[in-house]
Specification:
By secondary structure, the chain is of the alpha+beta class. 26% of the residues lie in helices and 31% in strands. A 6-stranded antiparallel β-sheet has the order 1-2-3-10-5-8, with no helix packed on it. The protein has a 4-stranded antiparallel β-sheet with strand order 4-9-6-7. Strand 1 (89-92) and strand 2 form a beta hairpin.
């Protein structure tokens, strides 16, 4: 749900529409490429709905961007320092996922830090990486996190760190009983 004319959802919707227009694609063409319905794409572009993490992941894959790159493109000029209160937070309320962009945004950088929070019982499944071969380091700060990649499930507890390259589907699950908070370091190939 959009908060106003300059809300994150409104800026994100406008950027998604720009990316589609830059390629000369119709909503139907983008739907075919992403596997997302035309109506969902249209509603996201018009900021009538807040896109889910899974939807943004599919669009990032089609456009060859990480989620942080896409989100940085809707922000003003990049800064070298972003104070904690100014770090951008994005929520997928449906999935119980909160994503904080810790690194100062810049579309030209290959690495970034993200803080993720999953509510107990949350289950995020991505059918493909936003960029094939993306390197991820997942460091659990509090709680437990189950990560599945390349058909292997990894159970991570507080302090554990998993490094992987993402080529196919991944799944992040917080079985509970408490929420999980983790750092995701992402490095483009």
């Amino acid at each position: 749900m959009a908060e106003g004319p300059d809300s994150v959802d409104a800026r994100l919707g406008a950027r998604l529409a720009e990316l589609r227009a830059e390629r000369g694609w119709s909503l139907g063409e983008l739907a075919d490429r992403s596997g997302v319905s035309r109506s969902t794409l249209s509603r996201a572009e018009r900021a009538e709905t807040s896109p889910t993490a899974a939807l943004l992941n599919r669009l990032c894959h089609v456009y060859g961007r990480t989620m942080s790159q896409l989100l940085s493109e809707i922000e003003p000029a990049p800064a070298l320092l972003v104070r904690a209160p100014d770090q951008r937070i994005w929520r997928d309320r449906t999935a119980g996922f909160v994503r904080r962009s810790v690194s100062p945004p810049h579309p030209g950088l290959r690495g970034e830090l993200v803080e993720g929070r999953l509510a107990a019982g949350a289950d995020l499944a991505y059918d493909r990486p936003p960029v094939p071969g993306l390197e991820q380091h997942i460091w659990v700060l509090e709680g437990t996190l189950d990560v599945t990649a390349q058909d292997t499930e990894h159970h991570l507890g507080t302090g554990d760190c998993l490094r992987l390259r993402v080529w196919g589907p991944t799944r992040f699950r917080c079985a509970g009983p408490d929420d999980v908070r983790y750092v995701l370091a992402v490095v483009l190939p």
